[in-house]
Amino acid sequence: MDEYLNIALPKGRLGDQSYALLKKAGLECPELEDPGRRLIFTSAENKVRYFWVKPSDVAIYVERGAADLGIVGKDILSESRPDVYELLDLGIGKCRMCVAAPKSFEDDFRGTLRVATKFTGCAKAWYGAKGRDIDIIHLNGSVEIAPILGLSDVIVDIVETGTTLRENGLVVVEEIFPISARLIANKAAYKFKEQRTRELAGRLSEVINE
Ligand code: PRP
Known about the structure:
With 210 residues, the chain is α/β, with parallel strands linked by helices. It has two domains: 5-93 and 180-208, D-Maltodextrin-Binding Protein, domain 2, CATH 3.40.190.10; 95-178, D-Maltodextrin-Binding Protein, domain 2. It is built from eight helices and eleven strands. The chain has helices spanning 13-24, 58-63, 74-80, 120-130, 145-148, 163-167, 187-192, 194-209; strands spanning 5-10, 40-43, 48-53, 69-73, 85-89, 95-102, 113-117, 134-138, 154-159, 170-179, 181-185. A hairpin with a 4-residue loop joins β2 and β3. The chain is elongated, with a radius of gyration of 19 Å. The model has no long low-confidence stretch (mean pLDDT 96). The protein binds 1-O-pyrophosphono-5-O-phosphono-alpha-D-ribofuranose (PRP). The site of 1-O-pyrophosphono-5-O-phosphono-alpha-D-ribofuranose has 9 residues, from β9 and α6. 1-O-pyrophosphono-5-O-phosphono-alpha-D-ribofuranose binds next to β9 and α6.
């Protein structure tokens, strides 16, 4: 076991939960537990290197081989469709991709539906499959206010507890797909580090099911 495993973690709550699972699975890294402002952490003992990256960038690091493995939400995988292996559903970071709208909204299927979202790919695929004509409005956040201000008819966004929708007078109209965090692997790295990667995926799977 000479080679290091390089793992990109999503900075934030999901990253903390992910590291907790990896630690239980045997890849502890004390440096990461006292991070300061650093973003790269190494454990020579466990032959692992972790990187804290923006959640939406994890798949980029993995696809391009800067990281061997990464942990990323299914929402981001569905949106950006990176060329990576999806190895395991970690069962954390659970939420749903939904269409939401003001309570009074009813689609009369006439004209073009205005859809505000960060997830333009997911929204286009969802409405494309139904043959519904839409006008996509790409926003970077605070999507919930778009229907309130008349910018859009509906939104496509992540719903976890439903609090953000509720507090902005919106309701779920349709559920598009369930979301959870996935362990992903770079395709070439998977080949070269197959044994270590498989072992880790196996241990993680045990930890999740404990
Ligand atoms: C997501 C999503 C909603 C909120 C839903 O935003 O865009 O705004 O979480 O969570 P809830 O159902 O528990 O209220 P996130 O916190 O990821 O921030 P972002 O808008 O910056 O992406």
